[in-house]
Amino acid sequence: MITRLFVFLLSLSPGMRKRVWRWWYQTMARRHRGADWTFMNYGFADPKAEPLLLEESDEPNRLLIQLYHHAANQHKLENLKVLEVGCGRGGGASYVARYLKPASVTGMDLCPQAVSLCNELHSDVENLTFQEGDAEAMPFEDESFDVVLNVESSHCYPHVEEFLSEVRRVLRLGGRFLYCDLRLGGTLLNLEKQLAESG
User: Residues of the chain whose pLDDT is less than 70?
Assistant: First the structure.
């Protein structure tokens, strides 16, 4: 019953979709502020890949980290300026900042409670900052980043084409968009079209 109501609310309008997702993620950030939950993705396992060398404290999140590694490792990030759009609880941005040696990582999320939580949980990571912002209207200057990373977040955005336009705007010339998300089979062709049209 609750699931049906949630799905119905998401289908009403793009504006309603954004408000419902924001409320959901705000509620999760407000209700559970513990350091035991810093990732929100479904994880990834590649039986052919070399095991990642992780600190002992990161081992409980191995599968979740592996998804970030798989997405972010498509391009060398060392000494680059990275933006993660839809950073959630900040675990992925923290992993990228600590292990992949970028100059800086900015985690951006729509939900102020999530950004506040990220700042609490990851304050010890020197090259990592968090900022509130909308994926469809990012609060950054043109050509601000070398890399934009988006992991299992864009399925929540009402206007993916606006998000992709913003990605293009904030990327420097020659920059990279590193992306992975969940999609229903029937929506893949539309996503491929949106990606192709975004340049």
Answer: 1-13, 21, 25-26, 29
CA 123-62-64 angle, 5° bins: 75
Retrieve residue 9's tokens: 């609310």
Q: For residue 46, count other CB atoms closer than 10 A to its CB.
A: 9
Which DSSP state fits 166?
H
Residues 158-194 pLDDT 10s: 899 999 999 999 999 999 999 999 877 777 777 777 7
**The two three-digit tokens of residue 5, written as one number:** 């109501």
Number of domains in the chain: 1
Read off the CATH number of the domain in which 134 is found.
3.40.50.150
d(CA 116, CA 108): 11
What are the residues facing 148 on neighbouring strands? 83, 177
